[in-house]
Design a protein that fits this description.
The structure holds 2 protein chains of 2 kinds. In chain A, strand 1 and strand 2 form a beta hairpin. Chain A has a two-stranded antiparallel sheet. The relative contact order of chain A is 0.15. Chain A is an all-alpha fold. Chain A contains 13 helices and 2 strands; from the N terminus they run αααββαααααααααα. Helices cover about 70% and strands about 0% of the residues of chain A. In chain B, about 75% of the residues lie in helices and about 0% in strands. Chain B is built from 15 helices and no strands. The termini of chain B are close together. Chains A and B meet through helix 5, helix 6, helix 11, helix 12 and helix 13 of A and helix 1, helix 6, helix 7, helix 12 and helix 13 of B.
Chain lengths: ~325, ~325
Amino acid sequence: MTDTTAEQSNTPDTAKGLARFLAAFGLLRESWVGMIGLFLVSFWVLVAIFVDLLPLQDPLAQTRGAINLAMLTEDKTGVMHWMGTDDRGRDLLARLLHGSRVVLFWSTLATIVAYSVGMIMGVTAGYRGGWWDEIISFIGNVLLSFPQIVLLLVILTAFGPNSNVGIWMNTALGLDKTIVSGALIIVAITFSTAPQVARIVRGIVLDLKTRDYIAAAEVRGEGPLWIMLVELLPNARGPLIVDACLRLGYVIITIALLGFLSLGLPPPDPDWGKMISDGRQWGYNGLNMMLWPALAISSLVLGLNLLADGLREISLRD
Amino acid sequence: MLQLAGKRLVQMALIMLTVSLLLFLAFEADKYSLAGKVLGQYSTEDQRLLWLEQNGYNAPFVQRYFTWVFNAARGDFGESVQFATPVSKLLKDHLLNTAVLGGLVFTITVSIALVLGVLSGIAEGSPRDRGITVLAVITTSIPEFASATILVAIFVFWLDILPGTSPFSNGLTWADANQLVLPVMVLVIYNFGYYTRMTRASMAEVMTSQYVRTAILKGLPYKRVILRHGLRNALIAPFTVMILQLNYLLSGVIVTEVFFSYKGFGKLLYEAALFGDIFVIEACAMVAVFIAVFSQFVSDIGYTLLNPRIRFS
């Protein structure tokens, strides 16, 4: 995921950008914290991509009489459940690994959407200034004055999958339930995340705006759109890549959290947050079902945070 | 100074008004749907129309909005559909519980963060500094509901020394104080990392400043340099950040309250959201935004008061 962000921001000269990215990767080897982060993130990304090729049980198949099995037990049909089964007799290992695809897919998509909106808000506010900046900053201040979860709860209660909007998307547009939920969650996350991105981008742009090369570009007669996209954003990429890593971690937490609060994606697809809240109803018997997803999400977010830490360390060095 | 405070107060009022308008638009613009939510989905069309008539919902939208804002400002948010009690009474009880939890967490978190932040900031780049930084990154990576799971597994099921839920059925009493241990632990673990890194960054910056070097060179004892010259200046930035972070703390408190069934503000809001108890959601959101905006105000004013360079310019 990091390489896609790096490559995207380098679009003007991809080859050179790629070389520079590889050089940065070479530097990352010097930071062991960053390497651990990279390892954890790559592990989950690879699992998410290749999970279909792994010899796993069907994550949705329910085995009769094999409810809440402990780890390393066989059910009556002689099938081994390495991590045990959940409250519907589904194999936990399969659900956990398939869950990484659900989590990474929706959180990456949400981060990209939120980042795009935030970057547009921030770069235009910073570069144009004036009344536009005032409006964007005020919108940002209003949205950021909500504690994040309160904002998400408000948006998803008023416009969520079970509201008139969600029902309309489901019936009139004929969209799948998962897609409706996912889309509305992305919208909600964009509302809570984009202002933070905008604030960071705006700060960087205000600094870059005073540089000579921007003045030169203006003298050359380049349009504002070109200056924002080609001159300003690529030069802001350093801190933004680090921030995107952290932000993706927060979005993963948020999506899992919505699952935990049963406001997330609809069942039966595996969702780490939902797995935890399902297990919680079973007390001691559900402990197995809660612990694995808790460890999974912690390791993924930890990986992203360590990676961001390593990248920051390197970017500060040169 | 007064001018700044006045300006911030106006901004604060403007944000609160905008938020109230947004909430009103989101929940009460469609009055027929609102009537359905309040009376339940099995109410008849006639009942809903009667309810709208009786409660003044046929007035023009602007008039309805101003009546609502005026009542909200007096603390009258209507009646909860789920509990059939005034929302203000519900809010008062639940907010008090949250204040106890939040206050405890804030105090403990800040104490730990200050000690660790200073210890790592005065020796930037040392193994101790690296260790504390990595510890801070690790604990901030574990979301509240995950660390709560892990802690419940350890302290409730394995060691069997703490209760796994915190309903406080007999009210907040000393006898049940052990129910608070796990929620507080979860929130402190998640939050101290960020505070520590803030303190560390600020302390590290101050330690490279001219006046600290002067103090060391003129032969003052190291401890005195740290406490008198370093710490006092280094605390200004983290202080404002910590107050600003109350907003994020509140988010975490909501999750933790839901996890441990602690009867606080967060659980109230969450259950209202699931039930569709519109008036409670509106009230909770307004209160949450007020806390956020007010803490921002306190942090801005505090920063100005604490920093003489700004105060006297």
